[in-house]
Amino acid sequence: MANSCLQLSGFLVSCVGWLGIVIAISTNDWVIMCKYGLNTCKKMDELEAKGPWAECVISTGLYHCYALTQILELPAYIQTTRALMITGSILGLPAVAMVLMSMPCISCGANEPQGSKNKRTVLGGVLVLIVALCGLVSTVWFPIGAHHERGLMSFGFSLYTGWIGSIFSLLGGCILTCCSSDSSPSESRPYQDNNRFYYSKQGGGNPPAAPLSSVMHKLMSKL
């Protein structure tokens, strides 16, 4: 019961983290850049929000974005952020599917062993950890690169969402990977091992010998 609760908790936390990664890569409010003060930049229309896909100009009555389409001319931190975030978003789908198919309430066959479900849970947890690693590297490297390029003023909503998604994915992956225990001994051991355990509890490692009287009776009957 405790293992099922941990598995469900890891699944829900991983789903929230993966959703945060997808929202972060889909939006462009990662960093707010400005060379001067906030009010001065708004008056001069130089306050910009930058993301992996576009740069947006923010002023009092204007919010205009233009896409970053020159792939070969883009800085390395933008290209790396795109690649890592897309990889994390794609890997999150099979990770969530594997964990979902390993739930106790879902069975892929009539007599599916618990060990197969545990293996799927661990594999899904490893994929979720890879998603978290992609998100962490991207959300840390991007603001550093933007600061060195033009001057960073503040963090945006998308960056916070990516941080939260990465942390949730890391937590969910750790729960799924480390807390997935094997099946109970009574289900995984063969019948002979269970008999050996029973006889060892009776006081010996081997089954009890037959009574001496019954052995003598069989010998006399043969004679």
UniProtKB/TrEMBL annotation:
Molecular function GO labels: structural molecule activity
Main location: other
Alphabetized UniProt keyword annotations: Cell junction, Cell membrane, Membrane, Phosphoprotein, Tight junction, Transmembrane, Transmembrane helix
Any one GO CC term of the record: bicellular tight junction
Entries under Pfam families matching the protein: PMP22_Claudin
Membrane protein topology class: Multi-pass membrane protein
TM region positions: 6-32, 53-72, 84-110, 122-145, 157-179
Entry's localization field: Cell junction, Tight junction; Cell membrane
Family label: Belongs to the claudin family.
Reported function: Plays a major role in tight junction-specific obliteration of the intercellular space, through calcium-independent cell-adhesion activity.
Complexes and interactors: Interacts with tetraspanin-3/TSPAN3. Interacts with OCLN.
Protein name per the record: Claudin-11
